[in-house]
Amino acid sequence: MLTWTVIFLIVALIAGALGFTGIAGTAAGIAKILFVIFLVLFVVTLLL
User: Fold this and answer.
1) Which of 12, 16, 47, 44 is nearest to 31 (CA)?
2) Are 33 and 9 in contact (CB under 8 A)?
3) Exposed (0-12), middle (13-18) or buried (19+): which is 26, by Cβ within 10 Å?
4) Confidence tier at 47 by pLDDT (50, 70, 90)
5) Which pLDDT tens digit goes with each residue over 3-44?
6) What does the pLDDT read at residue 4?
7) CA-CA distance, 1 to 8, in Å (whole number)?
8) Confidence of residue 2 (pLDDT cuts 50, 70, 90)
9) ∠44-7-46 over CA atoms, to 5°?
C-alpha cells in the first residue's frame, strides 16, 4: 500500500510540474488517503 502512495505522489508532482492542477490535486488527495490507511494498518499490526 505504501508503494501505491509513492506512485500517486510521483504522479501528483509530475502533473503539478506540467501544469495539470486538477490531476495533481486528485492524485495528491489519493496519496494522502492511502498513506493514512497505511498508517492505520501499520499501527493495528504493531498492536497485535
Assistant:
1) 12
2) no
3) middle
4) very high
5) 888 888 888 888 888 888 788 888 888 888 988 998 898 999
6) 83
7) 11
8) confident
9) 15
- The single-letter DSSP state of residue 19 is T
Q: What is the pLDDT of residue 15?
A: 85
Cell reading at 33: 488517503
Kindly report the CA angle at 18 between 10 and 24, in degrees rounded to 5?
A: 50
Contacts of 34 (CB under 8 A, 6+ apart): 1, 4, 5, 8
Provide the strand spans (E) within 1-48. Answer: none
